[in-house]
Specification:
The chain has 688 residues and is mostly beta strands. It has a single domain, classed as Maltoporin, Chain A (Beta Barrel). It has three helices and 35 strands. The protein has helices spanning 28-31, 34-40, 419-422, and strands spanning 2-4, 10-12, 19-22, 25-26, 46-52, 67-72, 81-90, 95-105, 108-132, 140-163, 168-193, 199-225, 232-257, 266-286, 290-291, 297-324, 327-330, 337-355, 358-374, 383-401, 404-415, 433-435, 444-456, 460-482, 485-507, 513-528, 535-551, 567-576, 580-581, 584-585, 589-600, 605-612, 618-626, 630-639, 642-653. It has a 22-stranded antiparallel beta barrel. The N and C termini lie close together (11 Å).
Length: 688
């Protein structure tokens, strides 16, 4: 149920509203820029990818459609030592490389990885048109231009494991990620026309943007096992730091007419970050098994835990305008300094039971939140909010056959806004399109009902999921027009209803062939609850399919051991329909790709060639919006065709297992901006 679209954005069950974990723990290293980090991670360091689409009470009450948990080889049955080096490059100028290592000595075990990469987006074209229905003087806004973007990133992680004895285990780990994206405006032309299409103003603009993002996680976990089977106690602490900074410079020339006040040469910045301390304890214990006379048994267990989070979001912003040669003048604003503090106390209890063909998971979670918003420059803007929630969840499973099951589930989830949605910093890089966050955003509550059917066999895996979810205070991006300038911010304005059907098929007719497809279709109904009468509805869907053919190890090289390794051919194809939002819809697109890889020295060395969209040179990404006061359309033309090469080499020998704690901290209660700003997705499904 996981797909990757033409721009390498990840979706689960057709939505971008999910969380990605690394070895059972959320990681800012991944959430800051998931497609960049995952693209750079060597595939042979990954053991499993788990999909959880019905999070239970032990997970934070996040309004997500699921969790993708990536389990690396440090969680496998290997030990001793091993290392893998990898590198890749593509025709657009991107490249990267890294190293992964795992070793075990006595009671100590260590795993670590480091990767560095650079990416390039060639020159692209932008066009936009906007028509106002309420302002005859500022009726038509037209713009066109060119830009190019590049960026760098590096990430590393490590985990040290110490087995005190057979019952006690300590893990200490870190994750560190740092990346940036730089966009250069090569020149854009903007003009405003009145209702008669007479020129009101025009100007040429050049400039640059730089966004810096990343994250650092430091964690410590203690695990205590008991003589009673499956009884487990864990205690954890995590420190998390997440910067999210941006800066820009704008230059305006050839100005004519009454241009907007913001269309002056300027430079601006915001330094935003999130600091988070988390303390957590979990305990799980099985009850005595009950045996019936007909040889049936009743297995049941209890899990409970508590968590305390101290989360501090801060931003420091500034705006300077150019007033004379070599002289800049600061323009102060009461929102230049902002602090958003959250204290969250959570406790949960879950009950699991299984008898015969029936299984039950039920849980109740309590969350209390104390929120403070502070504006040091103007303290009259300060405000406090306290609230608490009871969050129930339940899943009922029936086993039709040994490899077939049907599942019914209910979840209530809560989703809190992140720093970029809260930050009141005003981004006026484009003076006709201003953006800023909303510090008064409330947490979103989502209710979900789901039904899931799964059929699994050695050759065919089939999964079908039907889900319905609704929310009454969803966060949406809203745009209004005033005197020819559009202003975009976030607000809790949407009543959203989704009904979706998702399907997954994986067919392996033999060990050589693997064919798979993901399909998703949903109907979305959106209505604004702020009295504006805004509404939108429609169908959306996507399909992703692919296959791989493997040639046996000894294909033509029986007498050449150095060439011994598999030869694999792969193909993938996908299509995404326009996505629905409150004021319009986002672009549809199609993509395809091919790859071939060859293993050497019993697959220790692997070389891979890939082609992305070889039959599509460029694609026009179109976004449309329409309200009673305006309509607009923007087109970004992006180069799609790309070719590249990658290789990895593994060496060393593993003989012992590195132990890891089975539970850790999972803070998944904030919205992710890496997958799409404030997206609210479908719920439901099950746990695989």
């Amino acid at each position: 149920m996981v797909t990757v679209d033409g721009e390498e954005n990840i979706q689960l069950k057709g939505t971008s509203n999910f969380k990605i974990y690394l070895n059972g723990k959320p990681s800012n290293m991944i959430s800051s820029s998931p497609k960049d980090v995952l693209k750079s991670m060597p595939a042979n360091t990954v053991k499993d990818i788990q999909v959880i689409t019905d999070p239970g009470a032990k997970y934070d009450a996040e309004g997500v459609s699921g969790i993708i948990n990536i389990v690396t080889q440090s969680n496998s049955s290997m030990g001793g030592y091993t290392a893998t080096v990898n590198a890749r490059a593509d025709a657009q100028g991107g490249f990267g490389g890294g190293v992964y290592a795992s070793l075990k000595y006595g009671k100590f075990g260590f795993t670590g990885r480091y990767n560095y990469y650079e990416w390039r987006r060639p020159e692209g074209k932008t066009e936009s048109v906007r028509e106002s229905f309420i302002d005859d003087n500022n009726k038509f806004l037209n713009s066109n231009g060119k830009s190019k973007t590049n960026g760098t990133g590096q990430f590393g992680s490590g985990e040290l494991s110490y087995e005190i004895d057979t019952l006690n285990l300590i893990n200490i780990g870190f994750n560190r990620y740092h990346g940036n994206a730089k966009t250069k405006n090569l020149g854009s032309f903007v003009e405003m026309l009145d209702k008669n299409k007479d020129l009101q103003y025009s100007y040429d603009q050049t400039g640059r943007n730089k966004n810096t993002y990343g994250g650092t996680d430091l964690n410590a976990d203690y695990q205590r096992t008991f003589k009673k089977k499956d009884q487990l106690l864990t205690a954890s602490y995590r420190l998390s730091l997440s910067p999210n900074d941006s800066e820009s410079e704008s230059y305006f020339e050839n100005k004519t007419g009454a241009i907007p006040d913001m269309a002056v040469t300027n430079r601006q910045f915001t330094d935003a970050d999130m600091k988070e301390h988390t303390f957590q304890i979990d305990f799980v214990t099985p009850f005595k098994k009950i045996e019936f006379g007909d040889k049936r048994t009743f297995d049941h267990s209890l899990e409970t835990g508590a968590k305390y989070i101290i989360r501090i979001n801060e931003s420091n912003s500034g705006y300077d305008k150019f007033v004379a040669p070599d002289r800049w003048e600061n323009v102060p604003n009461s929102n230049d300094k902002f602090k958003h503090e959250q204290d969250i106390l959570a406790a949960y209890t879950g009950y699991n039971a299984k008898t015969g063909k029936w299984g039950l998971k039920a849980g109740l979670r309590y969350e209390a939140t104390w929120l403070k918003a502070k504006f040091p420059i103007n303290e009259e803007q300060n405000f406090n909010v306290d609230y608490s929630n009871l969050v129930p969840s339940a899943t009922l499973t029936y086993q039709l056959k040994p490899a077939q099951n049907i599942r019914f589930g209910y979840n209530m989830r809560i989703s809190r806004p992140g720093i970029w949605q809260l930050n009141p910093y005003v981004n006026s890089y484009d003076p006709t399109n201003i953006q800023y966050g909303n510090p008064e955003l409330d947490a979103v509550k989502t209710h979900s009902l789901s039904m899931n059917y799964g059929n699994f066999s050695q050759k065919l895996n089939f999964n079908l999921n039907l889900a319905y979810d609704f929310e009454n205070n969803g966060i949406e991006q809203l745009t209004i027009i005033d005197e020819g300038v559009s202003t975009t911010t976030y607000d809790n304005v949407s009543k959203r209803k989704n009904i979706g059907l998702n399907g997954y098929v994986n067919w392996s007719p033999s060990q050589k062939w693997n064919i798979y497809t993901n399909m998703s279709g949903r109907y979305t109904d959106l209505k604004a609850n702020n009295g504006t009468g805004l509404s939108n509805s429609g169908f959306a869907g996507n399909i992703f399919a692919g296959g791989q053919f493997s040639v046996p190890y000894d294909f033509g090289v029986k007498d050449k051991p150095s060439f011994k390794g598999p030869l694999r051919f792969g193909v993938n194809i996908g299509a995404f329909s326009p996505d629905i939002n409150l004021q319009g819809k986002r672009s549809a697109f199609f993509f395809h790709g091919f790859n071939v890889s060859k293993g050497f020295k019993d697959d220790r060395l692997s070389v891979r060639l890939f082609a992305q969209n070889p039959f599509i040179k460029e694609w026009d990404f179109k976004n449309k919006r329409a309200t009673e006061s305006f309509r607009d359309e923007s087109i970004f033309t992006n180069r799609m065709r790309n070719f590249g090469i990658a290789f990895s080499f593994r060496f060393g020998e593993m003989k012992a297992q590195i132990q890891k704690t089975k539970r850790g901290i999972n803070n998944d209660d904030t919205m992710s901006t890496g997958q799409g700003e404030g997206a609210q997705g479908g719920q439901g499904g099950g746990q695989n």
